[in-house]
Amino acid sequence: MKIVLASQSPRRRELLGRLGLNFTIKTSQLDESAFTAPTPQALVQCLSREKALSVAREEPPDTLVLGADTVVVLDGQTLGKPSGPEQARAMLRRLSGRTHEVCTGLTLCRGEEILTQAEHTLVTFRPLDEGEIAAYVRSGEPLDKAGAYGIQALGSLFVSGISGDYSNVVGLPLCRLGKMLKHFGVDCLSPWR
Among 69, 75, 165, 187, which one carries the catalytic annotation? Predict the structure, then answer.
């Protein structure tokens, strides 16, 4: 079965690759700003679904397409990718010493069959000082990541606790994805059964 990841994220590509699946990548051209939802959780589910469907329309009907969208949520407000260094600094100041939620919507679709779910993980930052924030922003790492940090690299220096799926915070919750893939007949452990 052909599997397509509808994402340009190198982190999602790496995580999906860890499952030993053969897949290709086809980026969705979806205008995410055109979509709204009543909650951040509903929004990531909607966006993951629309990304998957936009790519699936260009594939044969037996292709399994994976779409995903991740946001950081603090005080009910979504923190997306920062528009520049100043916004990254502001986001990191808000996250400092607090617990926030990382929410990822996942959609798998094949033909007319569509499965959409979401994963939630709580992440706690230790208090950050202005020098740490400035140095981290200068590293460039926070500029292309939701919430202005990457837990898999330098951003891990700020995380004092996590409750939930670590891979969700990176951008692709593998435990939930594995269960969803089984629904479509894909068993990542089949080579060892």
Answer: 69
The number of angstroms, rounded, from the C-alpha of 111 to the middle of its chain's C-alpha atoms is 24
- For 18-57, how does the pLDDT look when each residue is reduced to its tens digit (9 = 90+)? 999 999 999 888 887 778 888 989 999 999 999 999 999 9
Residue 35 has a pLDDT of 84
**pLDDT tens by residue, 116-140:** 999 999 999 999 999 999 999 999 9
For residue 188, give the amino acid letter: C
Region of residue 102 (left: phi > 0; alpha: psi -120 to 50; beta: else)? beta
187 annotated active-site:
no
